[in-house]
């Protein structure tokens, strides 16, 4: 992973799901830095860990996990979803982007049809959701001498996801995830950067314009309603301009910039420090992407979506 992408994700996670300096994966911390030093500094509000950061880091439309409001458990792998993914026709590099992109579309359609509280905010729809599908191939693929460009086969994906058994008889339980044997990471000099991630994410949108939405279901399945992105951003972006250059990623990151103060209120003890920490990371990224300035972000347009509470 490129330094720019890893630095942003580390800071964002620590702010949104931790104590501003670190975070846990499976839920609220019990002791250590999160329970001690952070608290003594007065930084803590209610650190929840990544698994309890719905619509901030963890989100719906996962490749292998169910939506929060469908099962109440967005953490456990759903074996039936893994089976469906495993049954997808392979691409030239196995479970590559030619597989993961249509699989993301399938999952998006399924969430719209079954999750009455599905909400797709700008950050979730244009950063987190594409990341869950793109990262599966970009970081799990085995870059061996035979496949230096990367090849993701079923056994490799099973190992990373903690799945055992064969097609038709997969099993999963907590804690089985492991790096596969004889697996090779991306070589030095070919790190996956924000620029590369942005290009992949935009290609997903170009191939599937139905993903260019901000909105959600209004309480019942199959009630998905979008908001006008132009109205949301004061005309800076719309469904066409989001496909130009870095605009889709700009929109996602600027949404974090605009929405963080409200979302973080009550989650951290020192809101000013939290926002400053995010800004120190976001501002240079947004500048490097050449993002147009958003003077207005009308979050009231999102108030009709029950799943939008506490969302970015």
Descriptive account of the structure:
The protein has one domain: Chloroperoxidase (Orthogonal Bundle). The longest helix is centred in the middle third of the chain and has 19 residues, at 122-140. With 312 residues, the protein is mainly alpha-helical. It is built from 11 helices and 5 strands; from the N terminus they run αααααβααββαββααα. It is globular. 42% of the residues lie in helices and 3% in strands. Helix 1 runs antiparallel to helix 11 (271-288), helix 5 (97-114) packs antiparallel against helix 6 and helix 10 (247-264) runs antiparallel to helix 11 (271-288).
The N- and C-terminal alpha carbons lie at a distance of 24 Å
**Global morphology:** globular
Give the spatial strand order of the biggest sheet.
1-4-5
For this structure, what is the CATH homologous superfamily? Chloroperoxidase-like
Q: What is the helix/strand order?
A: HHHHHEHHEEHEEHHH
Rg result: 19 Å
What is the level 1 CATH name?
Mainly Alpha
Major sheet size, sense and barrel closure: 3 strands, antiparallel
Strand content: under 5%
Give the helix/strand class. Answer: mainly alpha
Overall number of strands: 5
Low-confidence stretches: 31-44
Count up the helices: 11
Tally of structural domains: 1
| Secondary structure: helix percent | 40-55%
Q: What name is given to the CATH topology?
A: Chloroperoxidase
